[in-house]
Write a structure and sequence with these properties.
This protein is an alpha/beta fold. It contains eight helices and nine strands. It has a three-stranded parallel β-sheet, covered by helices on one side. The protein has a two-stranded parallel ribbon with strand order 1-7. It binds zinc ion. The site of zinc ion has 4 residues, from loops.
Length: 277
């Protein structure tokens, strides 16, 4: 299922992830410092939680995310580089091997894989065997990175569906890119805010949660900003019985009621209505 009208709430890694992964969002007055993360909520609801990362653990862009990651029951960073440049000694497919560390039991689980994805610098995100679109400009590098990321997601999906405990794979980005600029709020273009968001779910999930699947089908082309990802995930994981969940923000609920008229990005400075203009 592809939710094909999804936007980054803020086209920079830390603010976008901080809101996507916590109860804080643009539409509520709850301050980030007081907002629980989806990991805290899932732990309390009896999920066992994992965070596997190929991002840097420490550094200006990474430390706030690491604070959230450390709330998982189990954490592992395969990437040991430190510093301001986003780099790793590994390509993202290495993360997939870590899935084997998770016992294939019926216990409820939430596993977050934090990839490097297609983040700048694009040419560092794929092995040379994925250099299909050439190597002479940033757009080519970005296209190669996307091609590789598709391969990573396909490989991950094949691994997950071979397990008995597979329920769903959800993919969402923190922000998009303009290959020639990157992602820079001062040089904003809508390409930087348009992001992928898709879900692959098992037959078992679809049968048990038919209301959720029906709502997603109804809502899949409605606009969504990724700061509401917390509410979506509470709904999708069936952890609605917590004071921070707001069905109005949950695109997997038939109560989802955000419209393009009231949705914004970049600290409310841009309206989603203008995205199509
Ligand atoms: Zn980012």
């Amino acid at each position: 299922m592809i939710l094909n009208n999804t936007y980054s709430s803020y086209i920079a890694t830390v603010p976008a992830l901080s809101q996507a992964l916590t109860a804080s969002n643009q539409y509520s007055s709850l301050q980030l410092e007081k907002a629980p993360s989806i990991l805290e909520i899932a732990n309390t609801a009896g999920y066992e939680t994992w965070w596997f990362s190929n991002q840097n653990k420490l550094g200006g862009w990474d430390t706030p995310t690491t604070i959230i990651a450390n709330q998982a029951n189990h954490t592992e960073w395969i990437n040991t580089s430190i510093g301001q440049i986003i780099r790793s000694q590994f390509f993202d497919e290495e993360l997939i091997k870590l899935i084997d560390k998770i016992p294939d039991t019926s216990k409820k689980k939430l596993v977050i894989l934090h990839t490097l994805g297609c983040h700048t610098n694009y040419h560092s995100r794929y092995p040379t065997s994925f250099q299909k679109f050439g190597n002479n400009n940033k757009t080519n590098h970005y296209d190669n990175a996307i091609l590789y990321q598709d391969f990573v997601m396909k490989t991950l999906h094949e691994k997950l569906i071979s397990r008995n405990d597979f329920k769903a794979l959800i993919m969402i980005s923190d922000h998009g890119e303009d290959p020639n600029i990157g992602h820079d709020p001062d040089r904003f273009r809508w390409d930087m805010a348009e992001i992928p968001f898709w879900i692959s779910f098992s037959q078992n999930y679809a049968e048990k949660r038919s209301d959720t699947i029906a709502a997603l089908k109804d809502n899949h082309s409605k606009a969504f900003t990724n700061d509401m990802f917390f509410d979506f995930l509470c709904g999708f994981l069936n952890i609605k019985d917590n004071p921070y969940y707001d069905a109005k923000n949950d695109i997997s609920s038939d109560s989802y009621s955000r419209s393009e008229d009231d949705m914004t990005i970049l600290g409310k400075s841009k309206s989603i209505k203008d995205a199509k203009n």
